Amino acid sequence: MNRTLSKAILRLLLPSSSFLPAYLLPHLRSSPYYSSSPPSLLLSSSTTRSQSSNLEECFKKLKGVVLEAAEKDLVGETSDQQKERVKGLVLKEKAKLVKVKKMRKDVKGGRGKVKGWE
Questions:
Q1: Do the domain assignments include residue 43?
Q2: Which of 58, 61, 69, 76 has the fewest C-beta atoms lying within 10 Å of its C-beta?
Q3: Percent helix / strand / coil, the chain, rounded to 5
Q4: Domains in the chain: how many in total?
């Protein structure tokens, strides 16, 4: 037989892992690598014939899964171009509101007393 034991399996227990922040746990539980009994992330790799390189690949996968879970709640920085666009839209909306109010004022102002009917 020409077989090697090169498969690497990495299990990270979720509730007891103190180095992961609590806000990551719900996202990690929705990961395809989540195993419910015991609650953990289970990653495996058997792409190469070397167990050490497969274990290294498992750690890379784990890093990717944790980073992806961490990025889900992060809000990006608003660019200056987007800020200018929003300011323009706000000004446009205010001008539209002023125009509508002026039109309603003119309509209601015309409902007053009629001259010459006293």
A1: yes
A2: 76
A3: 50, 10, 40
A4: 1
* Cis amide prior to 38 (ω within 30 degrees): yes
Find the Cα–Cα–Cα–Cα dihedral 10, 13, 18, 24, rounded to 10°. Answer: 90
Helix, strand or coil, per DSSP, at residue 34: strand
Tens-digit pLDDT string for the chain (118 aa): 556 788 998 898 887 767 788 888 888 889 899 988 888 899 999 888 888 899 999 999 999 999 998 888 777 888 999 999 999 999 999 999 999 999 999 888 888 766 766 5
The span from the CA of 33 to the CA of 46, in Å, is 15
Identify each DSSP E strand in the chain by its residue range. 8-13, 34-35, 40-45
CA separation for the pair 28, 43 (Å, rounded): 12
> Any idea what DSSP says for residue 32?
T
